[in-house]
Specification:
2 copies of one chain form a homodimer.
Chain A: E1 7-12, H1 20-32, E2 41-44, H2 48-52, E3 56-58, H3 64-70, H4 93-104, E4 107-114, H5 116-131, E5 137-142, H6 158-176, E6 183-189, H7 196-199, H8 201-206, E7 213-215, H9 223-237, E8 239-245, H10 256-260, H11 276-288, E9 292-296, H12 300-303, H13 310-328, E10 334-342, E11 347-354, H14 355-359, H15 379-385, E12 397-398, E13 401-402
Parallel strand pairs in A: 1-2, 1-4, 4-5, 5-10, 6-8, 6-9, 7-8
Antiparallel strand pairs in A: 2-3, 10-11, 12-13
Helix pairs in contact in A: 1-3, 1-13
């Protein structure tokens, strides 16, 4: 087999995670090893936007030690983007522009690191350039703390966020129970449609140091039921911890802030979530008269590299490296996925998942992993999640603080 | 010298820290070694409240391994309290009750672990029992993330919170700069009157990954000036991170939520929604039209044992143990303090600080460590703080999550 010869580009897209840079490092470091087939490796500034704007960096100019440090640097060092390509049947101008840039820089390997939307982007780009007769390998590298990608056992980024959330919940539990006066604590966790991350608070509960109640978006939300649940436990114990996903909504589709407050929409018409903890805390204070504290894990949960899962960092890197190896072997239009071969001891293998299978699906927490009342998570989830967070990643330190990568970002020329 | 013979009690008071249990462990483990002079060591449930209510635990009943685990378990495992004793000249009923309990249980060593208020409590209790002719050693063990106790170079609990805040700020920086659309991020840090913790965000800035602006309670706050500062930097850079202490207030004593409350077209539709970060974020969004995110470190900053400073844990323990050794040597009415003997290499020695010197003072960040404009922190602070966070404490793990202590809490009988 003749190996396709040409340059490679990697783009990062969507919300950051603690390990998205590890995946980019996997692509970059692996691709740089194959200079006989891939003369140049580019990093796109702000994902697809950087390609459209012809702003990308020559990764061979970077110090290899800094590329190593990308593995333990959270968020997207190349810059991320939320730009959405149009449907090519309606408006193909972006696609034509991409093709132009691909040709100009002889880009034959396209790696895109992101969630569902990014896999959809990959798939559309691939189809367009193929129809135009341009030979290019397109591989998706999975990324999302939400853990909602189809075709893979779990997603890089999820385990680190879960480890942070479970650990922080245990610590908050110690704090929230410290006074002899009652307290209700509301924890707000990210997750618009899938409750994988909020469910991670059950790992703390299983150690006797977690929430009493957990509400996921997989179950229709009822504010009155939550108030009733909280009141009952508050009466029994005097202390209640409630974990709630930012994405829970009622049968008619309203989010918590809409139920007792107001919600704003962004430029794309997406409702701006977040703030549920405080809104709910205010509501519960009024309903119960108790002292209530709302805590939002906010950005911290998706960028806490200091307590990232070791296997998550390694797998994120390998997903990137494997994408390169598979593309060199002639594969295209796949996302790298992970299949769990064994739970104890934990073992996975890397698989190829067709991009089209990922693009239009959202994997949710199975309903049978949630209790009948819809206010707690069952042991199936614990068995699934615990192996993913077993060890902590080691982050190189400098005077007691993390040493993150410093990229030179030398702009590439054709 | 004859060593006073009798039982010991330790109480924990005020807001939790990552290492307050380490101090309690220091007292308990050290006191248990001296059974020839201290037959029993009691742990008061919820500080002074537990003594008044005669609810305390016989610490010799605990598994020594669990007492070891107290060192790395955040918050107050014995329970804390915010109960304030009356002025004995006005109402001495609590003091008479305490004396009664001390006599009943032959308590001759009283250790109290807390901040300014706790040292005041110690001082008053000591005077009352002495006036009543009851021989008892009273020693304060310092604790506060606020770092505002007089007579000591720094306070156990501060360094761990500072390390958490600096690290998290660096991580948030990676995340907050990831899109090519501008963003303003507001970080809210604890500290009502002293800005030691908020100032720790400058450690992140010194690594090129921190706030552009830092506002401490030591400087009179001016909302208009902050808005102007933010607008200027936003124009220059497109991304701004602002760190603000929850305690900043204007010349006439108003806190941030009160300020925007009076401007009052209520950006969020609720009054008292969130803390300073959210209120300020809403205000800045209105003033700049930028995307603004408010992040409150909340309880996480005071209970994040998973990233506690190693020296903080050790010093907290030693402060407790030293209090016992000094009390056995006949000292009373002191708080254990720390004196920095050398900065490089970092070295401290333990000293005795008269309780009365601590009780009525609050140590603030020196004005000359803050820039003239009052919106940033100078290198003197970095030199002071960096040695305190040099290493990370090792927290024993169980399946990837912290293994916190589990106390039996066997109630003591007279």
């Amino acid at each position: 087999m003749t190996v396709l010869r040409g340059n490679a580009i990697i783009g990062q897209s969507g919300g950051p995670t603690a390990v998205i840079n590890a995946s980019a490092a996997g692509v970059i470091i692996e691709a740089l090893k194959h200079s006989e087939h891939i003369p140049k490796v580019f990093g796109a500034a702000h994902g697809i936007r950087g390609i459209l704007d012809e702003v990308f960096y020559d990764m061979s100019e970077e110090d290899p030690r800094e590329l190593e440090l990308m593995k333990t640097t959270p968020s997207s060092s190349l810059g991320s983007v939320r730009y959405k390509l149009a449907d090519p049947d309606e408006d193909d101008s972006d696609y034509r522009r991409l093709l132009e840039v691909f040709r100009k820089y002889d880009i034959r390997y396209f790696f895109y690191n992101g969630g569902n939307d990014s896999m959809d982007t990959c798939s559309k780009v691939s189809k367009f350039v193929r129809d135009a007769g341009y030979d290019m390998r397109v591989m998706g590298v999975p990324k999302t703390i939400d853990n909602d990608l189809a075709g893979t056992d779990h997603c890089p980024g999820f385990a680190s966020a879960a480890k942070y959330i479970a650990t922080s919940t245990m610590e908050i539990f110690q704090d929230a129970n410290v006074y002899n006066t009652g307290q209700i604590t509301v924890l707000e966790v990210m997750g618009r449609n899938a409750g994988w991350l909020t469910a991670a608070t059950v790992l703390a509960a299983a150690r006797g140091a977690g929430p009493d109640l957990i509400y996921l978006p997989e179950v229709e939300f009822c504010l009155e039921q939550l108030v009733e649940d909280v009141k009952r436990i508050y009466q029994e114990k005097g202390n209640v911890i409630v974990a709630v996903s930012e994405g829970v909504r009622t049968a008619d589709g309203r989010y918590i802030p809409e139920l007792v407050g107001t919600v704003s929409t962004d430029a794309f018409g997406h409702k701006q979530l977040g703030g549920a903890a405080q809104v709910l805390a205010d509501h519960l204070a009024k309903e119960t008269g108790a002292k209530v504290r709302g805590i939002e894990f906010s950005l911290l949960q998706r960028c806490a590299a200091h307590i990232a899962s070791k296997s998550d960092v390694e797998e994120a890197y390998e997903c990137g490296a494997e994408a390169v190896r598979q593309a060199l072997a002639g594969q295209t239009d796949y996302m790298i996925g992970m299949k769990r071969v064994s739970n104890v001891p934990y073992e996975i293998e890397y698989i190829l998942v067709p991009l089209v299978d990922v693009a239009n699906h959202e994997k949710k927490v199975p309903r049978e992993w949630i209790n009948a009342e819809g206010n707690f998570v069952k042991s199936e989830y614990i068995d699934y999640c615990l192996p993913l967070i077993a060890e902590t990643s080691d982050v190189p330190q400098e005077d007691g603080l993390p040493r993150f990568c410093r990229l030179k970002k030398v702009q590439a020329r054709p």
